[in-house]
Design a protein that fits this description.
The complex is a heterodimer. Chain A is an alpha/beta fold. Chain A has helices at residues 12-28, 43-54, 71-77, 96-105, 148-151, 153-158, 177-187, 204-224; strands at residues 2-9, 31-37, 60-66, 82-87, 114-118, 135-141, 161-165, 192-195. Chain A has a seven-stranded parallel β-sheet with strand order 4-3-5-2-6-7-8, sandwiched between helices. In chain A, helix 1 packs parallel to helix 4. The N and C termini of chain A lie far apart (52 Å). In chain B, a hairpin with a 5-residue loop joins strand 3 (70-73) and strand 4. The longest helix of chain B has 18 residues, at 3-20. Chain B has a domain at 3-68 and 102-113: hypothetical protein PF0899 fold, CATH 3.30.2320.50. Chain B is of the alpha+beta class. In chain B, helix 1 crosses helix 2. Chain B has two helices and six strands; from the N terminus they run αβαβββββ. The chains are: A alpha/beta, B alpha+beta.
Chain lengths: 226, 114
């Protein structure tokens, strides 16, 4: 009988590929955001509105993760930005290998300023898979209830920014903004919080303002490198 | 159910390592899974039963050690364990620079075999 000590990370091979992606994004000076939410929180609509505001000012690209369809990619394509569809065919999350491949398929990827990765709608599994992004961003909608940070703490813990979407529906729900902000403050006290409505456009300017700042920060960071 | 993906990665690692070490029967596999990870031990066991079909794993016992969340406040150096709900603010000084010392692990610790 032999005992063989491995102490090997279960996600070690994904981490390796994520580091490779991150290094490439760093070299090219592209800000990469990994957008995560439950199904129906409004990720694609938020992307459509964001593209309308920023297209022309920034060179944008989108990688769309979806179980089976290309509906979201078509919606993004109509807005006039480059988009690559990944169909995971049942897999509940994107991984670093899928992103490396999809990124290489984007035309003119070297010219991008900002790349959005729209993850598969799921608050559990995507949280464990590093894609090489700069920031994870979690989108929650008021209709889902204020208890989500407590129920899915890891995804909220890891996110640099939290978008509370469908804020226009707030008066028609039992969503407690106070409880939500308190729970979020405990789990992730340094997260940037945006409250907006993808449908009405309310609060969108703060979000796009933050994106512009972060794109600049990334470019300056890259410029300082040898 | 990303536990199926995780388990299939674990089995690939074990197959490759067993081949390199001339091991044909694994008797025990020890994993360490933090409680602040999104991998459920029961789902890992289910995936193991479904995926580990060949002779190498026929007699293998899957042992999963769960680790509690344990944090360090980098402002006042106090260490603290899990609280009633997840809270990454120091219970002593309200510091926000919290480092997770344990609870995020997902490791293959070791395996035994002949």
């Amino acid at each position: 009988m032999k005992q063989i000590n491995l102490e090997s990370k279960i996600l070690g091979s994904n981490e390796l590929l994520a580091r490779k992606n991150r290094h490439l994004f760093e070299q090219l000076g592209i800000l990469v955001l990994n957008l995560m939410s439950s199904p129906g929180a409004g990720k694609t609509t938020l992307l459509e509105r964001t593209i309308e505001k920023l297209n022309g000012r920034l060179k944008l690209g989108v990688i769309e993760g979806d179980l089976y369809t290309d509906q979201d990619a078509r919606r993004i394509e109509q807005k006039g930005v480059q988009v690559i569809q990944i169909n995971t065919e049942g897999t509940c999350h994107l991984d670093a290998a899928m992103i490396g491949q999809a990124f290489a398929d984007l035309q003119e990827y070297g010219q991008l300023d900002l790349l959005f990765i729209e993850n598969v709608g799921n608050l559990v599994c995507p949280a464990e898979f590093d894609l090489g992004e700069d920031y994870k961003v979690v989108v929650l909608s008021t209709a889902e209830g204020n208890d989500k940070p407590l129920k899915y703490p890891l995804i909220f813990y890891q996110s640099r920014a939290v978008v509370l979407n469908k804020i226009d529906l707030l008066p028609y729900t039992d969503f407690s903004l106070e409880r939500f902000l308190q729970d979020l403050e405990n789990i992730n006290p340094t997260a940037q919080t945006f409250m907006l409505s993808g449908r009405t456009g309310q609060g969108l300017a703060e979000w796009t303002g933050w994106l512009l700042e972060e794109v600049n920060r990334k470019k300056q960071g890259t410029a300082r490198e040898p | 159910m990303h536990e199926v993906t995780l388990m299939s990665g674990i089995l690939d690692t074990l197959r490759e390592n067993a081949r390199q070490n001339g091991i044909t029967r694994i008797s025990r596999i020890k994993l360490i899974v933090g409680k602040f990870s999104m991998a459920l031990p029961s789902s890992l066991r289910f995936a193991f039963a479904a995926l580990a079909q060949e002779g190498l794993f026929q007699e293998a016992w899957l042992d999963i050690e769960e680790r509690e969340l344990h944090c360090l406040c980098q402002d006042c150096q106090r260490e603290f364990g899990p609280q009633s709900s997840y809270c990454f603010v120091c219970p002593d000084c309200n510091g926000q620079h919290i480092k997770i010392l344990a609870g995020r692990e997902m490791l293959i610790d070791f395996y035994e075999g002949d």
